[in-house]
Write a structure and sequence with these properties.
By secondary structure, the protein is of the alpha/beta class. About 35% of the residues lie in helices and about 25% in strands. The strands form 2 sheets. Strands 7, 8, 9, 10, 11, 12, 13, 14 and 15 form a 9-stranded mixed β-sheet that branches. The model has no long low-confidence stretch (mean pLDDT about 95). Bound molecules: nicotinamide-adenine-dinucleotide.
């Protein structure tokens, strides 16, 4: 069995999480850790067996270690710089969400990543919830037309992040490095799932506000209505100002049935095409990754995403989440910010294609 060497760039919270996921994957090992604060890389390296090499820069890591895959876990505004270096060095790529903070840079990078597939390099963006068995089941139900015509969706993320969270690192809550607030950082998981389930958006109308935190540039509440090209209408809500933090819900309604995802579970399912079919019939995942026994359950999502990446590399196929998916998720987040900043509806395609690249997003306080 071939074992692929992974370099993790950024040894903070999610870098450590990647190391745990890689340790659970039989075809992967952490070979190198990179961090601009070498003590962060050293501290993570000390927890791993075998101990990976540590480096201040990715350039140094490539010079000193054999690296097949680079996992980019730096602050969001630094993702694409490391991604470009990775593909230039001939390694495969897994980029933490969001793809980056700058849509123009992300658009240009999508072309670079597409060209690199011709050299056999696989590039993927983390969106681990796409691989949740419940999400996979609902996606299949939509594709199989079990919900009929999807008329509408309600998507809500009522989470809580205290002030200490935003104060914990300089990059949090900044436009340049976080790319936005509750929607760009936390809500992008839901944004990506909406795109996977509902297709391409047509028009977005949004409001954002900074309602419950201080010393950040970005929103902690976002609310949007989105019309999809299919005609489906969706309501999107994301906040980090909802104490104590409640489950994420994604409800999908159609002419032949409906499905409700709550966190990573399928809470409700109904279809007229097979009235006896229940949620439990659709999601009975084999415990391939030991999820039931995992005290740190959310590592499982990343293990599933690594499994998809390894399979894509082995079979020279596109990964489940491609760079273009990351680009579309970023463009939908940006559409919300552009709409909220201009106070009018915007076309998703125009935002994606760059018509609003020069709009500086701004966040209103609770009193507009
Ligand atoms: N998929 C998920 O569920 C999930 C969850 C949390 C975070 N994330 C993403 O992971 C990324 C990092 O988040 P975090 O919470 O781990 O942040 P963090 O601040 O805990 O860690 C970031 C690390 O990157 C290092 N770093 C900064 N600049 C660097 C550079 N130029 N080169 C190398 N290292 C550098 C920092 O020193 C720090 O150790 C963000 O993009 C975030 O959106 C994803």
């Amino acid at each position: 069995m071939t074992v692929l060497n992974v370099a993790i760039v950024g040894s903070g919270i999610i870098g450590a999480h990647h190391a745990k996921a890689i340790a659970r994957h039989p075809k992967l090992q952490v070979t190198a850790l990179v961090d601009a604060r070498i003590e962060a890389a050293e501290a993570l390296a000390a927890t791993l067996d075998p101990r990976p090499s540590v480096h201040l820069t990715l350039t140094e890591a490539f010079a000193q270690a054999t690296i097949h895959i680079v996992a980019i876990c730096t602050p969001s505004g630094l993702h694409i710089a490391a991604a470009e270096e990775t593909l230039a060095a001939g390694a495969h790529l897994l980029i933490e969400k969001p793809l980056d903070t700058d849509l123009a840079k992300a658009r240009a990078f999508a072309t670079v990543a597409e060209a690199a597939t011709g050299r056999g390099l696989v590039s993927s963006v983390v969106s681990q919830h796409r691989f949740d068995p419940a999400t996979v089941a609902v996606r299949r139900a939509v594709q199989d037309n079990r919900l009929g015509r999807v008329t509408s969706a309600v998507v809500s993320m009522p989470w809580w992040r205290d002030q200490a969270y935003y104060d914990s690192a300089d990059w949090r809550g900044t436009w340049a490095f976080d790319g936005g607030g509750a929607l760009a950082n936390q809500g992008i998981h839901l944004v990506d799932q909406m795109l996977a389930l509902l297709g391409r958006p047509a028009e977005v109308y949004a409001r954002t506000a900074l309602a419950s935190h201080e010393r950040i540039e970005v929103e902690d509440v976002a609310a949007a209505t989105i019309q999809f090209e299919s005609g489906a209408l969706a309501v999107l809500h994301a906040t980090t100002g909802a104490r104590p933090g409640l489950p994420v819900r994604l409800a999908l309604y159609g002419t032949e049935g409906s499905a409700v995802l709550q966190d990573d579970q399928l809470e409700y399912f109904h279809t007229t095409t097979d009235p006896g079919l229940r949620a439990a019939d659709l999601v009975s995942p084999p415990d391939v990754y030991g999820a039931a026994k995992d005290p740190d359950g959310w590592v499982t999502g990343h293990v599933r995403q690594y499994d998809d990446l390894v399979d894509a590399i082995e079979h020279a196929r596109a990964p489940g989440v491609q760079v273009r998916h990351g680009l579309e998720a970023l463009a939908l987040v940006r559409s919300v910010y552009v709409s909220a900043s201009l106070g009018r509806a915007v076309s998703f395609t125009e935002v994606l294609d760059g018509a609003f690249d020069d709009v500086q997003p701004r966040t209103q306080g609770v009193t507009p």
